[in-house]
Amino acid sequence: MATITASVYTSHVPAIGAAIDLGKTGEPYWQPVFAGYERSKAWFKENTPDVIFLVYNDHANAFSLDMIPTFAIGCAESFAPADEGWGPRPVPVVKGHPELASHIAQSVIQDDFDLTIVNRMEVDHGLTVPLSLICGQPSEWPCRVIPFAVNVVQYPVPSGRRCFNLGRAIRKAIELYDEPLKVQIWGTGGMSHQLQGPRAGLINREWDNRFLDRLIADPEGLAQVPHIEYVREAGSEGIELVMWLIARGAMSDAPPHVVHRFYHVPASNTAVGHLILENR
Amino acid sequence: MALDKPYKDIPGTTIFDAEQARKGYHLNQFCMSLMKPENRARFKANERAYLDEWPMTEEQKQAVLARDFNRCIKLGGNIYFLAKIGATDGRSFQYMAASMTGMTQEEYAQMMLRGGRSPEGNRYLSEQK
Question: The pTM is what?
């Protein structure tokens, strides 16, 4: 059977992708951000899975206002990087895992989560920036990736509790897959940030760090936090953090091993948070 | 009975909910069209003529022409869609964010380097002067 070996959590700030693509990672502004991922890159080289189940949100690229799926699972063979307005990022095409993705869709829908099955989709910085941060700049991504897009753009977005329970359903589905694949689940987005209006630039270091503490030690309690607290305390775009609860819900019920924890302000408009948790 | 919208009392923040999305549908879809290089070129060549191809309100068109992003948001725009205008102009996300705060980009960048805008005094409308 397939197993979930670990989960990775990280912000997916577009400016981080631009810094990598333009060769600016050594600049004084960016150096502290990328230093926080050195350990992660080494860990990933030693622990490359067969498949990454990557939870992220689309930022008005694959999905316009024509269709707004709350949860969309990418079942295609490949996913090209999107042109977000300044040309596509110069990163490899993402190779999917259609068999495992379709299996997960079937199992999770039978568990009462209404996933939208997507067989053609481009992927934006929400998915490619985390891959660049952890895998660097290879000519091919080192493993298959199943994109899992969550609507956090048009309110209301799914609750933390629903995301956590969805993670549990995904765990069950993966464990029911016959092939002995090693799967990592990544939750991306956040941490505190607000990109709009006179309150733009909001950062809440204290709240973010409490979120990290609770994600490790009390994820079920954390999942009860209502939307309004995310928005008020972590900014209108801080709501992306509900996606981390999908990845956390997919981990075993036993306390995880904390491989790495990192927090830094700022990357452009955003607080960068990062965690790696292994199942014991 | 009205829906519960507790986010209405957060200062300087517009939540892109169903009501806003309804108002801003054509404005946001216009922004979406700027993902294609040929559309970006046509928009740049004659902004007004390009906007007139969309069933947007006059107020929305004026807000786009003025690059008044706070106004765009009030009229139903969403920041991820509006970012396509910024990209077309060759502006960074930080530039766009700064323009909505009344600060210069330099002042805004300095605020971020100092740890960002504090939530203190910024949680409720009632805390604001």
Answer: 0.97
